[in-house]
Amino acid sequence: MVKEKEQAVVYLDGRQIAVVKDGKAFASEIRKSRRAGLISGEINVAYHRKINEVHVNADRGRARKPYIIVEDGKSKFNDELKEKLKNKEIDFNYLVRRGIIEYLDAEEEENIRCALSESEITKETTHLEIDPAIYFGFTFSSSVFQEHNSAGRHPLSGNFIKQGQGLYTINFNKRYDARAYLLYYPQVPMVNSTAYRAMKLGRHASGQNLVVALSTFYGYNMLDALVLNRAAVDRGLGRSIFFRTYTDEERRYPGGQQDHFKVPPATAEGFLGEHAYSKLSEDGIIEPELEVKEGEVLIGKVSPPRFLEEQTSFGVGEEKTRDNSQTLRTGEEGIIDNVMLSESPGATKITKVRVRNVKVPEVGDKFASRNCQKGVVSLIVPPEDMPFTKEGVVPDVLLNPLSLPSRMTFGHMLETLAGKAGALGGKQYDGTVFSKSGKERVDEYGQALEKYGFERFGDEYLYDGRTGKRYDAMIFTGVVYFNRLLHMVSNKLQVRSRGPVQILTRQPTEGKPRKGGLRFGEMERDALVGHGASLLLKERMLDQSDKADIWICKECGDVGYYDYIKDVPVCPLDGGNNLEKVEISYAFKLLLDEIKSLHILPRVRMKSE
Known about the structure:
By secondary structure, the chain is α+β, with helices and mostly antiparallel strands. It has five domains: 4-135, Hypothetical Protein Ta0175, Chain: A, domain 2, CATH 3.90.1070; 153-239 and 363-484, DNA-directed RNA polymerase, subunit 2, domain 6 (Dna-directed Rna Polymerase Ii 140kd Polypeptide, Chain: B, Domain 6, Beta Barrel), CATH 2.40.270.10; 244-306 and 319-359, CATH 2.40.50.150; 494-543, DCoH-like; 547-596, RNA polymerase alpha subunit dimerisation domain (DCoH-like, Alpha-Beta Complex), CATH 3.90.1800.10. Helices cover 20% and strands 25% of the residues. It contains 14 helices and 32 strands. The radius of gyration is 34 Å and the shape is extended. The termini are far apart. The model has no long low-confidence stretch (mean pLDDT 91).
């Protein structure tokens, strides 16, 4: 009989189902059966030697990846099968069914020894990558030259590609997405990858090919900053439309009461004034192609009161309504693009209003290349002041040369070369990860550039637009695919002098939609304390926040109140009238009240003036 500690425990989808004598042999047997087609190809198995457990996974939703099986140091995907696949005599599923390719999940991948290419196969190798580029995910594979960049840039690069504005769907004019961005002139990149072409991402392009020069510009493009050409912006560089949809519904309430879409009467509770409803139709809904600004009503709606109706002096219940209209968000403006009327499953009326707003690149907007060269626009320069080449080509973007070595994004430099060669030759280059060595690529692009009379490494002499003098150094110039990102200064602009405050703490509300203030936090406070700027500290944290005049009893130190009928301050503890008005933060008064709720009586001692 096998000892208990030598047996391997078998788990199916996390549940213990059995114990076996040899876990490794058991896992190997399952793999053989799967490759022979005796059990489902959806099953994965992993043997964990350190804890002597076998995990069998058959649950749905696992991410799985295909690998070529290697047996006895040879790939099962031979030349004969390659020819048949090229001639379309067989397909990919045929290879899976015949046990030549198998799908592995993340747990089973821990049990394999995988080679990136056939030349790396050894006796211990169990699997072979179909292609080195498949090593990465959907987003990352659509990028180019990423093997030449620092690893820390890779996750950022994936984020920027996802954020790129473009043609996200062809039926955008029929959709009512909560938020949507649509680029005016999306372009297919001059340099793309196998994955980009296979997934046909060119149909939904999300960027533009820009002429980029690596040059400083009077200090305006320090660090992350980008300098744009005003003429390029006027011609449509990075121009996009921002759509936002506002939705409302005629809800039903208990007791037979219901909301109604209409222009609220002046007697309604919370009436906003005649001017706010001036653009509504008779049915209370705004019409397309009207310009709207913040605070203006898009959908007029009246709702029943929140509480039961009060009785009038005659004992007759008066029907009251409150204004529950949908208004345009704070800090936004635009044009009504479309209005849709529909019905919910509960047979109540639904209205959707889509507002569009043209977003032209401005100082503060964010751009990034696929190789993670992000930057914020710091200056938009008239074309006559921009540097230009001897052919009169004016760059669209001036990028600081110091941004490349510090971030180690050498893939960006390769793309600049490849984009320039592609633009001159009218062809697209392949920049798939690991497909060629860097030297091969530089030689290929250099030969193409020399063919058209340019310097091998993409350098050109530029002339200063302001003085007309030629720069002493040659400037690295080329074509790079840039994405315009979602972060735009017009969506983030926030300002207030006075505004709404929270009911509990009486401090300013939080967030742009609620007309909130900008948080002056602990670390900002420390900076003012360190500078000794006491008056500024008082202004920020008291006068502009939650300053409150509180009555304090001189005898017992408790918080009192003012009796307006007798016109005297009163102490609730001893009933005396010897109180002093003190300026404190309302949050401190709230703290005193909360301490009282714990049956502790805090007392405030005041120094004599």
